[in-house]
Amino acid sequence: MAPAKKGGKKKGQSAVNKVTTRKYTINVHKSIPGVGFKKRAPRALREIRKSAMKEMGIPDVRIDTRLNKAVWAKGIRNVPYCIHVQLSRRHNEDEDAPNKLCTLVTYVPVTIIKNLKTVNVDEN
Length: 124
Hints:
The protein has helices spanning about 30, 40-55, 65-70, and strands at about 20-25, 60-65, 80-90, 100-105, 120. It is of the alpha+beta class. A five-stranded mixed beta sheet has the order 2-4-3-1-5. The N and C termini lie far apart (about 50 Å).
């Protein structure tokens, strides 16, 4: 077995520090099994926040009001099975914030949710 090289190639910059926008389909139904009726919509929003934090790598996640209304549209019990969202990594406007970037999660209305893939969106 060959000895491990020290040094090697230099690593590039982390992709977490770049401003990007992506569209995702989140399966909410999979993340809230066994949750009581009166806690389903709040738990769904927490799970959307958790998945956005995992995908974008930034703990500061902000949920748009239209996404909140889309989750709560059928009441606290009947949360949609899947929801299509756009995750935007943006510069934080707060000067005293601990993170330089934040993630904004917005709702993308679609008629058919099947076979939607993750897509990188141009900022233009």
